[in-house]
């Protein structure tokens, strides 16, 4: 694979879109992408279209928080607790499933496109057969309440490149790694710095794990969120990333953040391990590249929106970032 060089990072296009976009997924080897919006709708966007006129697929009953591609099938998840299957070629709904009792936070698919994965604030991770829509199994390893007896939330999940492992992460910094085939819990790791409790001002908690990613070989697990928060009414904690050898239960890297505040909403490893990319924000947003070999930050770039999610192309040299009314395209071609 040709090297995608963060030193060459530049904004190539700034495409307007509708509402706040919470997630994006690309159809492989194409310019077609699917986004979930705050106007309750799922849209298709041609990423080569200079006007990027979105085409509506259909709607949920609340915010569409995540979109996944499973071969030629699109699966969207929403605060309404439903998963909806869409036919990418016919641009029509296949089925809708009442999947969770609370807000769905993230939807993914295994690389072979056979299994969909969803996590929600009912603290459940559920695996679904993409072809039939039937639930395969439920993974329960996260407590419904925080240590201070407030509702917890299950924000994040990730699937390994070989489709064997799923990781889930919650509000209090607890991560579980699961075996996809059996549903067995394989390991846990903890990131307590990503959870803040304020006993004085509001008796309120904030933060939590917002993103997870496996390295290409499945041995490393990156965890993204936010460090301790001084003012709970604002996202004033520093953007934070930790990396683990999850099989040993050892933290190998810690990037506490020195420039940007806010949540790390998504993480992705370069397929060849050249870097780890994180994105997120508070009011403004950021892109951050980490060199794990040298344990240093390669580059940090301000983005003119809170980045809720992004997708890469096959060469990993183009980033399609989504947020408040925009799709921002960054290139880093060597």
Give keywords.
mainly beta, Methylamine Dehydrogenase, Chain H, seven-stranded antiparallel β-sheet, 55% strand
Q: Would you give an account of this structure?
A:
By secondary structure, this protein is mainly β. It has a single domain, classed as YVTN repeat-like/Quinoprotein amine dehydrogenase (Methylamine Dehydrogenase, Chain H). The protein has strands spanning 10-26, 32-37, 41-46, 55-59, 64-70, 73-78, 82-87, 92-98, 104-109, 115-120, 125-129, 135-139, 154-159, 165-170, 174-179, 185-190, 195-198, 204-207, 211-214, 220-226, 239-245, 250-255, 263-269, 276-281, 285-291, 296-303, 309-312, 318-322, 324-331. The strands form seven sheets. It has a seven-stranded antiparallel sheet with strand order 4-3-2-1-29-28-27, with no helix packed on it. A four-stranded antiparallel sheet has the order 5-6-7-8, with no helix packed on it. The N and C termini lie close together (12 Å).
**Can you tell me the CATH architecture?**
7 Propeller
**Poorly predicted ranges:** none
Classify the oligomer.
single chain
| Rg, Å, rounded | 18 Å
Which strand-content bin applies to the residues? over 45%
Q: Estimate the global geometry from the Cα principal axes.
A: globular
For the biggest β-sheet, the strand order reads: 4-3-2-1-29-28-27
Distance separating the two termini: 12 Å
CATH class: Mainly Beta
Major beta sheet, specifics? Answer: 7 strands, antiparallel
The SSE string, one letter per element, is: EEEEEEEEEEEEEEEEEEEEEEEEEEEEE
The number of E-state strands comes to: 29
Helix content: under 10%
Number of domains: 1
CATH topology: Methylamine Dehydrogenase, Chain H
Structural class: mainly beta
């Amino acid at each position: 694979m040709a090297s995608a060089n963060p030193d060459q990072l530049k904004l190539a296009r700034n495409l307007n879109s509708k509402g706040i976009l919470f997630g994006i997924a690309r159809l492989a080897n194409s310019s077609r992408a699917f986004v979930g919006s705050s106007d309750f709708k799922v849209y298709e966007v041609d990423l080569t279209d200079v006007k990027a006129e979105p085409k509506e697929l259909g709607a949920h009953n609340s915010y569409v928080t995540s979109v996944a591609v499973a071969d030629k099938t699109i699966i969207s998840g929403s605060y309404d607790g439903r998963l909806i299957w869409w036919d990418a070629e016919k641009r029509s709904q296949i089925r809708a499933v009442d999947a969770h009792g609370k807000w769905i936070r993230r939807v993914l698919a295994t690389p072979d496109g056979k299994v969909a994965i969803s996590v929600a604030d009912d603290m459940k991770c559920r695996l679904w057969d993409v072809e039939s829509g039937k639930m395969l199994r439920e993974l329960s390893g996260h407590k419904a309440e925080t240590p201070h007896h407030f509702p917890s939330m299950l924000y994040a999940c990730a699937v390994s490149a070989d489709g064997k492992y799923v990781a889930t992460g919650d509000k209090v910094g607890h991560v579980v790694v699961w075996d996809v085939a059996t549903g067995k819990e394989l390991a846990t790791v903890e990131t307590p710095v990503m959870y803040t409790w304020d006993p004085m001002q509001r008796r309120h908690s904030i933060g939590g794990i917002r993103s997870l990613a496996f390295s290409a070989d499945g041995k490393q697990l990156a965890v993204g969120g936010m460090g301790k928060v001084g003012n709970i009414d604002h996202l004033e904690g520093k953007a934070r990333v930790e990396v683990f050898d999850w099989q040993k239960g050892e933290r190998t890297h810690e990037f506490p953040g020195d420039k940007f505040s806010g949540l790390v909403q998504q993480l992705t490893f370069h397929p060849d391990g050249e870097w780890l990319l994180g994105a997120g924000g508070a009011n403004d947003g950021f892109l951050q590249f980490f060199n794990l070999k040298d344990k240093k930050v390669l580059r940090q770039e301000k983005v003119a929106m809170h980045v809720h999610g992004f997708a890469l192309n096959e060469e990993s040299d183009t980033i399609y970032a989504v947020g408040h009314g925009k799709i921002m395209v960054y290139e880093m071609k060597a």
